[in-house]
Design goal:
By secondary structure, the protein is mainly α.
Length: 116
């Protein structure tokens, strides 16, 4: 096993590479027929991935443990605890949102995407 923190860096890189390969070898072939075939191919891939995951790991839930740095409450407000893990997820979501916004508004790739 890789561990939580290295996987947090490696997983997006692997997903990026797989997404780039999918776009290159599947979506570009159906792009000339419009958006509906692109959506159908994308949904077909999502169903295929879902079935493969269930075939390999089964349908039952897999227990997991949080790293010690993310366990416990970050703060308590009126007797309600707000977990560190949820704060971390919110922080990652905000970083992703800012990254996509910067990509779309400040780069040449973003200009190409917005033109389509």
């Amino acid at each position: 096993m890789v561990g939580f923190w290295p996987a947090l860096v490696l997983a997006p890189l692997v997903v990026f590479a797989l997404g780039a390969l999918f776009e290159r070898y599947a979506l570009r072939r159906v792009h000339k027929w419009g958006h509906v075939p692109e959506l159908l191919v994308t949904f077909g891939l999502s169903y295929l991935i879902l079935e493969l995951v269930q075939l390999i790991w089964g349908r039952s839930t897999v227990p997991y443990g949080l790293p010690t740095q993310l366990q416990g409450p970050l703060f308590t407000l009126y007797g309600t605890q707000f977990p560190k893990s949820r704060s971390f997820i919110m922080l990652v979501a905000l970083v992703m949102l800012a990254s996509v916004w910067l990509l779309l508004t400040r780069t040449r790739i973003g200009l190409v995407i917005r033109r389509r």
